[in-house]
């Protein structure tokens, strides 16, 4: 079940999941947690299974009606079970954005998005020589709405 985590950013279970998705640098986890708790444009949702928070996605709602995924994580012991896919599909259904966007430096993550129907574009390499990918999912309009 998808749950709003906006008011739970200080909980240990949310911080544990965010730690899997945040760059490993001093204060990054703390800054990210504070941002999700304080910025209205940032949303944080998680997937609970039998009372256990197994995954989360943090995203920003943009002025053009898009959702930009900033963080997504699943507990290591629950990876490969479809939770990240479920979170994204639930966000699409609940928020009905024009586009769903993500950026990643991880080729496995780029393949994950590609397998969900995202178009994946290379943005080139960052200064450290790591390739960055832009992932874009364009939501099709309902034929009934035409």
TrEMBL record:
CDD domains in alphabetical order: NAT_SF
Cross-referenced Pfam families: Acetyltransf_7
All residue ranges annotated as the N-acetyltransferase domain in the record: 1-142
Gene3D superfamilies (alphabetical): 3.40.630.30
InterPro entries: Acyl_CoA_acyltransferase, GNAT_dom
Region forming the signal peptide: none
Molecular function GO terms recorded: acyltransferase activity, transferring groups other than amino-acyl groups
PROSITE patterns, alphabetized: GNAT
UniProt name for this protein: GNAT family acetyltransferase
